[in-house]
Amino acid sequence: MRLGLHVGHWLGGAPADPAPLAVLAEELGYDSVWVSEAWGSDAVSMAAWIAARTSRIAVGTAVLQLAARTPAAAAMTAATLDALSGGRLRLGLGTSGPQVVEGWHGVPFDDPIGWTREYVEVVRAALRRDGPLAYRGRHVRLPAEGGTGLGKPLKLGFPPLRPEVPIYLAALGPRNVALAAEVADGWLPFLFSPEHAELFRGSLEEGFGRRGGRPEGFDVAPIAFAAAGEDLAACRDAVRPQLALYVGGMGSRERNFYDRLVARYGYEREAREVQEAFLGGRRADAVAAVPDRLVDEVALVGPVPALRERLEAYREAGVSTLVASTTDEATVRALARAMG
User: What is the DSSP pairing of strand 135-136 with strand 89-94?
Assistant: First the structure.
């Protein structure tokens, strides 16, 4: 199992340079460093900045939002970043949720499974450069219909360093997980619990079956919040607000992917308490309602021996790259010791 570092994005606080942590991770032997985007900093700029400051570590996007750029733009970005980094890009893609897709990007959140499938197909075709790119799907139509009528199929204007840039999909629901196993090179789950890995196995096998078997090197790469230290209670409290945000606030009462996932783990009552408090404006109560047991299942917390035990649990659950989400230097160092 490899170790990755997720440095996130700028949202709600003063911008901080992610490159020093990426450089440290590279020095400590981490396999990859990942950036994300919501409605603050964008992942492309962050990835380019990190790639320019490092030399060996893989640089991943976890994730680029589909609504933020056309698949052709994503292909251009992937080819450019991969060339500039010397073949170190891992292209993580995801739909995000309806609040961001419709509220920030102004795009209808319609048929996310079909949209993702077409998006990946177009990105792969653009990178292969088999010929001028034409595509007729439900969500993506190239050239566009209507307009001036002057659009014509085009081919990516330079040969990519790697026509098969690894594509990862962020997925939680059963159908989306199956799609990741079918069309992607890796899967980026969030709030993944090794104790409940069996909940995903059926969807993964379904997707692998549709592509004729599990491809060699398919990367199961969950992202887990992390806080290392001798005081376990303090470490739990360090990540608890982030868990409350996702379970309670990343969505509505009617549609919250993280709330649903935690409920599937057996925390339906607790998830409801977190969500009701968060959406009711009682943030402190929402944080307090996140149970210790859930924190321990989906996050990396505590001293090095405890981290080592959890790393082994992820390994036994079939994880091939564990991506720790933290901007704390001490935690980055502690995880490297635990892996060693």
Answer: unpaired
Task: Tell me how far apart the alpha carbons of residues 38 and 96 are, in angstroms, rounded to a whole number.
Answer: 8
Sign of CA dihedral 64, 69, 71, 72: negative
Residues whose CB is less than 8 angstroms from the CB of residue 40 and which lie 6 or more positions away in sequence, other chains included: 9, 10, 11, 12
For residue 92, the 8-state DSSP code is E
Tokens encoding 208: 């692998």
Q: Are 111 and 175 in contact (CB under 8 A)?
A: no
Given the structure tokens 């199992």, which residue do they identify?
A: 1
In DSSP notation, 144-183 reads PSSTTS----B--SS--S-TT--EEEE--SHHHHHHHHHH
Q: Tell me the C-alpha distance between 302 and 244, whole Å.
A: 19
Whether the Cβ atoms of residue 46 and residue 8 lie closer than 8 Å to each other: no
Q: Give the span between the Cα atoms of 218 and 152, in whole angstroms.
A: 35
At 304, the amino acid letter reads: V
Residue 18, preceding peptide bond in cis (omega within 30° of 0):
no
Tokens of 230: 């001798």
- Strand (E) or helix (H) holding 246: none
Taking 70 as the pLDDT cut, the residues of the chain under it are none
* 63: three-class secondary structure by DSSP: coil
pLDDT for 305: 98
What does the alpha-carbon distance between residue 68 and residue 86 come to, in Å, rounded to a whole number?
25
Cα of 319 vs its chain's centroid, Å: 14
Q: Residues 244-283: pLDDT tens digits?
A: 999 998 877 877 889 999 999 999 999 999 999 999 999 9
3-class DSSP state of 302: strand
CB-CB contact of 244 with 278 (8 Å): yes
Residue with tokens 């609040």, as numbered in its chain: 99
Residue for token pair 């999909």: 169
For 318-339, how does the pLDDT look when each residue is reduced to its tens digit (9 = 90+)?
999 999 999 999 999 999 999 9
